[in-house]
Hints:
The protein is α/β, with parallel strands linked by helices. It is 35% helix and 20% strand. The strands form two sheets. Strands 2, 3, 4, 7, 8, 9, 10, 11 and 12 form a nine-stranded mixed beta sheet that branches.
Amino acid sequence: MATRRASHANSWYSGNGQQLDRELTTWLAATTQISTPARAVICPHAGYSYSGATAAHSFRQIDPHTVKTIFILGPSHHVRLSGCAVSQCTSYQTPLGDLTIDREITNELMETGKFEVMTLSADEDEHSIEMQLPYIAKVMEPARGNFTIVPVMVGSLSPSSEAKYGKIFAKYLKDPSICFVISSDFCHWGDRFNYTHYDSSAGEIHQSIKALDHAGMDLIERLDAPGFTNYLKQFGNTICGRHPIGVFLNMVAEIRGGVTNGHRMDLKFLKYAQSSQVKTPRDSSVSYASAAFIMK
Length: 296
């Protein structure tokens, strides 16, 4: 069994453990902890100079004293994938120490017959999971050696497939010792992304982007899986983690539909940012948002 290299270190984030630790500490210190620890978070996955400060708002909500396993659901940017895939590795390297993969849960997922296995090259090429790892290592530091991760690459799923995977993952979300990290950036705007939706009634282009993103974020806060699917059909917003988000919303729907449902569930976005403020059609930007989901 292989160990996945920290292939984006020294480019997307610092490969120097001490420097990286200082950066993460600074960003986390600038956030506020909500009253109830998160059972799931939505986090961006851009280079840390762009989205590190935004990601801190959601990672601050993970309780290392309760959490024993962290699922990471990240979209596939490079490999054609119609379902979901798990890692063949036993550990993932980070500049803050290696993270152990939960082979028992990974094997449980494989036994459903619904999961492929990533090649090592596909695993190492993908950044959407890796960009969550240093933050996980940092916030889980008090539990070092006593927690595991379950990386899952999520492909281009149909709404029915999102529901199918939501059913599979729901039992894990119900477990208070498990936390889900849902990896997603929000609108990728500009010619280089082939997306230039602009509603002039919202103001300048960056204000239109913000309004568009917030329309989707509102549906996610309402935990409305069909509404989010319809929003994506209507506006085509380039939310790269739309399928991991869709799977998560379907986990919630599955739990809500359960016979013994006594859970109060709540999701709130804690921070929104854009890489730059687009004012002319020649500009481009990527949006980042952090959210925390609680279940009582």
